[in-house]
Amino acid sequence: MKHVSEFRDPNLAKALLAEIARLAEQIGATRAQPLHIMEICGGHTHAIFRFGLDKLVHEGIEFIHGPGCPVCVLPMARVDECIKIAESEGVIFTTFGDAMRVPGTRGSLMQAKARGADIRMVYSPLDALEIARRNPEREVVFFGLGFETTTPSTAFAIQAAAREGLSNFSVFCNHITVPEPVRALLGDPDMQLDGFIGPGHVSMVIGTHPYDFIAQEFGKPIVVAGFEPIDLLQSVAMVLRQIAEGRAEVENQYARVVPEHGNPASLAAIADVYERRPSFEWRGLGEIDASGLRIRPGYAAFDAEEKFGVGYATGSRNVPEIEGCACGAVMTGKMKPTACPQYGHGCTPETPLGALMVSSEGACAAYWQYGGARAAAE
Ligand code: SF4
To answer: What is the pLDDT of residues 203-231, one digit of tens each?
Structure first.
């Protein structure tokens, strides 16, 4: 298949693996003292495990799975607030399917739906907008969730609702940003990171410059990468080459998709609709300054926090995590999923304790799906 098969070419993969091994040995990376390369994006985590790249690369390379799964970092309090909105009289609550099974203190949206709430899965906020048009007597709320990749589409839906004067549509905004948690991780003295694989889809929107601080302030290389095996192997080789040559720069392996300065139409919509929250709570990471977006006062009529009196509008936050759940340590790369005491015991995809086990971008789900279930059984 064009644009896929060439990025899965076995001969190219072998050549890149040999180059990675050569560079790893030149740097002196070993199994005992590996180089820690963090892939920020959960989509990359899944690609690495799907194609077995963690086992193919030189033993001196260790992939550290970062916090780039928006469903995984959603705190319990926000799930609870979703359920509160969804169970309000006359509400149709719409969400991406990924968020349906994320546990809150009162269960998940899936369980709220089973109790009778009108919760519907959609593929786009524009689907939610259409539901609002067809149900003028009902309040339709879209669960706006995700990094910069999905932030523009929610903004476009809000702009469309404003143009049409749709008074029964609102967004529960939980959009978050990538650079701030990376800065928080780099400032954590317990983290030992040698380089980064940058998120491809997010960068398509924001470009590569928001990562300049990683290279300039922290002296770490970062390579924005695509999602096929050749993309990832080439990106690892590029990170290693920077380390071997004593450089720390932002490089773009995914230039066929990621423009240096991002997507102007998306960036304009983001700037029009949202403003930064002073801080936002991340599951496992705590409060991170300026890492979340809220809807600007000019669009307050479409802000579910204002309409339903929930969330940061009421100051309610910081619900403690479930006891025994190691999601925070996994999300910050301090623990592998299989090292979590709950993995495969209390926590499975059927009975998830943490969001990382149910999200399509969660690290625990990746381990389970691509061999971790067998590891747990063994
Ligand atoms: S196995 Fe379950 S409880 Fe443990 S880190 Fe993963 S999602 Fe969290």
So the answer is: 999 999 999 999 999 999 999 999 999 99
The residue to mutate among 285, 356, 359, 368, having the most atoms of ligand 1 within 8 angstroms of its beta carbon, is 356
35-53: b (≥16 Cβ within 10 Å) or e: bbbbbbbbbbbbbbbebeb
pTM for the full model?
A: 0.91
Q: Which residue is associated with the tokens 């399917």?
A: 97
Q: Select from 72, 325, 331 the residue to mutate for testing ligand 1; criterion: most ligand atoms less than 8 Å from CB.
A: 325
Q: Which atom of ligand 1 is nearest to the CA of 352?
A: 2
Residue 30 token pair: 């070993």
Which tokens belong to 133? Answer: 């048009």
d(CA 159, CA 265): 13
Q: HSE of 289 in the Cβ direction (CA atoms, 13 Å)? A: 3
Cα gap 67→61, rounded to integer Å = 19
Q: How many CB atoms lie within 10 A of CB 19?
A: 18
* Confidence at residue 312, expressed as pLDDT on a 0 to 100 scale: 67
For ligand 1, atom 1: residue with the closest CA: 343
The full set of domain ranges for the chain reads 327-370
Q: Strand, coil or helix: what is 271?
A: helix
Non-local CB neighbours of 168 within 8 Å, separated by 6+ positions: 132, 135, 136, 137, 138, 139, 140
SS3 content of the chain, % helix, strand, coil (to 5): 45, 20, 35
Q: Is 325 in the pocket of ligand 1 (CB under 6 A)?
A: yes
